[in-house]
Amino acid sequence: xxxKTKSRIRxxxxxxxxxxxxxxxxxxxxxxxGYCLGGITLFGFILLFITGLYLGAFYYPDVAKANxxxxxxxxxxxxSFIRGLHYWAAQAVLISIILHVVRIYITGSYKKxxxxxxxxxVGLLAxxxxxxxxxxxxxxxxxxxxxxxxxxxxxxxxxSLGTLLFGSASETLNLLTKxxxxxxxxxxxxxxxxxxxxxxxIKQLEISPLPWxxxxxxxxxxxxxxxxxxxYGLLFWVIIGIFAAVFPPPLGxxxxxxxxxxxxxxxxxxxxxxxxxxxxxxxxxxTTLLFALLVAVPFMDRTEDRExxxxxxxxIGLIVxxxxxxxxxxxxxxxxxxxxxxM
Length: 343
Ligand code: HEM
Description:
Helix content is 66%, strand content 2%. By secondary structure, the chain is mostly helical. It has a domain at 32-264: Cytochrome Bc1 Complex, Chain C (Up-down Bundle).
C-alpha cells in the first residue's frame, strides 16, 4: 500500500473515529515492562472472555451432566485446545495481577492521589479470585465438588444469608446453574464496571512518576504505549497457547459424594495447612485478613516518599507476606490429603 493511500485511510478513519485523540502524551516509563503488567492482564482477560464464550456454548450447568459436557467439549482437538487456553489464561492472569500489585506496591503508586484506584484494584482482585473459584467448581469433578462443599461450609457461618449466597437455597434452582450464572454473567459485569472505573482513574490521574524521579518527566504518545502493550499481550497469548497445546488441563471423573480426597489448585494451596490447623473456617478468616491488609495499605503508608529504601517497614511487610504465601503453599503441596469437612 502506498504512503498516500495509507494517509488517506488514516484521514478517513480519524474524521469518523477521532483516533488522533489517542496520541496524548504519557510518561515514557509507562512503556517499561513493570508498567505494562496491568495492560498484559487485560489481554489475558480478553482471551478468557473469547474462550469462555466457546465453552459456555457447550457446557451443561447441571450436576448430573456438567462433568460429561466438559468431557464432550474436550473430545475434539479444538475443544481441548480452547479449554486449555481458558485454563492456562486464568492462571496466567492471576500471576500477572500479583506482579502488577507488587510493582505498584514497590513504586508506592497507591499513594495520594491514587488510593481510590488501589481500592478499585482490590475489588478487581476479589472478582478474579471469585472467577477462579467458580471456574474450579463448574467442571464438577472431585476437586470441583469438594471446593463447592468448602464454600457451603463457610456459608453456614452466616446462617440463612450464607445459604442464599453460597448454598443451593432453593429446590427449584440447580446449584451448578447458580454458579454458572455467577461465573458467566454476574462476575463479568462486576469486572467490567470495576475495569471501567480503574481505566478512567488511570487516565484522569495519569501514571505515577518514577519513585526516584527528579525534574521533568520525559513523555511519549499513548499510541506508542498501545503498540508496546499489543506486542507484550500477543507474546502473553503465545505463551498461554504453548501451555494449552502441551499440557491439556486435568479433568477427573464425576465426583463421588461423601468422600474428601483432593487438595485445592495451587493458588489456594496455601489455605490447606491453615485448614489442617484451624478447620474450614480458617479459609474465611485468612481471606478476610488478606483483603483487610490490602485495603489498609494506602492508609498505613501515608508519607510522600515513594522510594522503596525510604519505606523499609512496608518492604519488610511485602517480603514477609510473599514468604508466608510461598511457605504455606509449599507445606500445602507436600501435605498428605486430609479431611476437613467431617463427612
Ligand atoms: C483485573 C485486574 C487488573 C487490571 C486489568 C489492571 C489494569 C491496570 C492498568 C492497565 C494500569 C496502568 C499501568 C500499569 O499497567 O501498571 C493499572 C494501574 C494501576 N492499578 Fe491496576 N489492574 C488490575 C488489578 C489491580 C489490582 C489488584 C490493584 C491493587 C490492589 C491495582 C491497582 C492499580 C493502581 C494503584 C494503578 C495506578 C498505578 C500507577 O499510576 O503507577 N490494579 N492497572
